[in-house]
Design a protein that fits this description.
Layout lengths: L4 E4 L6 H24 L4 E3 L15 H9 L7 E5 L9 H6 L4 E6 L6 H15 L4 E5 L5 H11 L11 E3 L7 H17 L1 E6 L13 H5 L3 E6 L1 H9 L3 H14 L2 E2 L11 H21 L3 E4 L13 H7 L30 H17 L5 E14 L2 E9 L17 E2 L21 E11 L2 E11 L4 H9 L7 E6 L4 H7 L4 E7 L2 H17 L3 E5 L6
Parallel strand pairs: 1-2, 1-3, 3-4, 4-5, 7-8, 7-10, 9-13, 15-18
Antiparallel strand pairs: 6-18, 11-12, 11-17, 12-16, 14-15, 14-17, 15-16
């Protein structure tokens, strides 16, 4: 095995994001390379920093292939991520690389490095690529250094995943078994349609469920086009869009508007978002969709403001009414239309199942995915807890937020990601008992991890501090996972996303978890129960 370790970094496709995030990436890379040098090994970057683009990221699949052609095929390879990255920029090279692979992320909320690494890890898991993974705040702690030494010695880095137990080890309550089996049978017989507005957002290979695996559950894709969504938006009148805005204003939702569309959220951007909401419902109804996902970040981002306001509204039962074009029928009346952000099909299947179980149990069915963005310890009720910051740009329903619509404010999305602006549904998730889960693909099978947690309230100053070190325009959830440590979740979780849904209390959440486990199993998924306090 060659002595020289090669370091690469996958980046964004958007030049503005790569340039803005490069200083943090360069700092993280230097710290990792210094740690490798202190272990007596040579290390170099796999590609040079581009003086014209002013960053050193691999920023396209095309460029990634060029880089990998010049790398020793058996070299030890470290992928350092301090940012959000597009996995397909480098996945092709990782498929055929013969040397050991290590992914590393900086434990920082500044840019979504943890999110990027988890996505890459999940994509490699789906692809069957062997890898090790590490994370660190400053790359000098013993956890990181001992793992690095293992990997440099040619070993696979092992982490504690004792929090994960196969569903077969548990006996589910009879009520959960009966309901889960009945709902799975209904789905298999009756079928459901997942509307996909362009597949494969941001290189998220892990977020694409192979059709043959999805079909076995009773769910089938309707592949739709974002160009059709944009065209449908043009058919929505200003009056219809303004009616949605007026409904939101009457509910007490706030919009932080300004005059400059390049830096401010404008009324025109909000109107466009309201039209997108109407257009999405009409297309979903035309095709009989039970759940939909909008890609937005590619293609649509160059045509229209962000999809995030529309996504959050779709996931809420109480939302502005929209009528069909021809007969005046109210679409999906009294129901949420589950929307999965960034066309994450694993989250879409999870959201569909959650919606059906929660409604059958009589619970509020609103659900959303979040990025596993960041986390720190915090003194909760007199003792230290690790409090995760779950945060996502879109899809969070107002029902999840403290104060509902009145507790929500829409702020302009960051310009480096969202050139044409548009607002989010910003707020703080209310305290309460939750069920978290993730569907993923591993070894050619659909699998699911399920666990319990609670969303907690932090002091406003602490919430604001956490917002300022992440993305202050986005909605957040402060979550404490039951029986799962920081490092255990990072070691096991096969996605950048986690699905969450509230239950009325702990007992209700335990019943929902058990029912979901049963339904997943009956749908053919391999299920694991994670952590504690699940009542099983």
């Amino acid at each position: 095995m060659p002595d020289t370790v090669i370091v690469i970094a996958s980046g964004d496709l958007r030049l503005s994001a790569n340039q803005e995030c490069w200083p943090a990436q360069a700092q993280a890379e230097e710290a990792v390379m210094n740690a490798i040098r202190r272990e007596g090994r040579e290390v170099r970057r796999g590609n040079a920093c581009d003086p014209v683009k002013r960053h050193g990221f691999i920023d396209s699949q095309k460029y990634g292939m060029e880089v990998f052609r010049g790398l020793p095929p058996d070299a030890p390879l470290v992928v350092v991520e301090a940012v959000w990255q597009y996995s397909h920029h480098i996945l092709h090279g990782l498929y055929t690389h013969q040397g050991p692979i290590l992914t590393v992320a900086n434990w920082s909320g500044q840019w979504p490095g943890l999110v990027g690494m988890l996505n890459l890890n999940a994509s490699m898991t789906k692809a069957g690529i062997a890898y090790s993974t590490l994370w660190s705040e400053d790359f000098t702690d013993e956890f990181f250094l001992s793992g690095l030494r293992q990997w440099l010695a040619g070993e696979t880095v092992q982490h504690d995943v004792s929090h994960v137990r196969a569903l077969s080890q548990f006996q589910l309550p009879a009520q959960a078994e009966e309901l889960g089996a009945r709902l799975a049978g209904e789905l298999h017989r009756g079928k459901a349609i997942m509307g996909i507005f362009d597949e494969g957002c941001m290189g998220m290979y892990n977020a694409i469920i192979p059709d043959e695996l999805l079909h076995a559950t009773g769910v089938f894709k309707e592949r739709l086009s974002q160009s059709a969504l944009f065209a449908e938006m043009q058919q929505v009148s200003d009056a219809e869009g303004q009616a949605v805005r007026g409904w939101l204003d009457a509910k007490g939702m706030k919009f932080a508007t300004g005059p400059n569309p390049e830096t401010d959220l404008t009324d025109e951007q909000i109107l466009s978002q309201c039209k997108m909401y109407i257009a999405a419902l009409r297309i979903a109804d035309d095709f009989g969709c039970d759940t939909i996902g909008i890609q937005y970040q590619q293609g649509l981002k160059d045509l229209a403001p962000a999809s995030d306001l529309a996504e959050g509204l779709l996931n809420n039962v109480d939302r502005p009414p929209v009528k069909a074009r021809h007969n005046g029928r109210v679409l999906y009346e009294g129901n949420a239309l589950p929307h999965f952000n960034e066309v994450d099909e694993c989250a879409g299947l999870d959201a569909l199942v959650t919606n059906r179980i929660w409604k059958a149990l009589g619970y509020d069915p609103e659900t959303t995915l979040h990025d596993i963005r960041y986390g720190e310890t915090y003194a909760v009720n007199g003792h230290e807890e690790f409090v995760w910051l779950f945060e996502i740009s879109g899809a969070v329903p107002p029902a999840h937020l403290t104060g509902g619509y009145a507790g929500a404010v829409s702020e302009r999305q960051p310009a480096m990601y969202f050139r044409l602006g548009g607002g989010s549904v910003k707020g703080v998730s209310k305290p309460g008992e939750i069920v978290w889960s993730r569907i993923f693909v591993d070894g050619g099978k659909l699998k699911a991890d399920i666990g319990r947690a609670r969303a907690i309230e932090l002091p406003p100053a602490e919430t604001e501090r956490r917002w300022q070190i992440t993305t202050p325009q986005w909605p957040v959830m402060h979550a404490v996972l039951y029986g799962v440590t920081r490092d255990q979740l990072m070691a096991r979780h096969k996605s950048n996303h986690v699905q969450v849904a509230y239950a009325p209390d702990a007992a209700a959440a335990n019943l929902a978890l058990a029912t979901k486990a049963a339904m997943f199993r009956e749908m053919g998924l391999e299920v694991a129960i994670c952590g504690t306090d699940h009542g099983l």
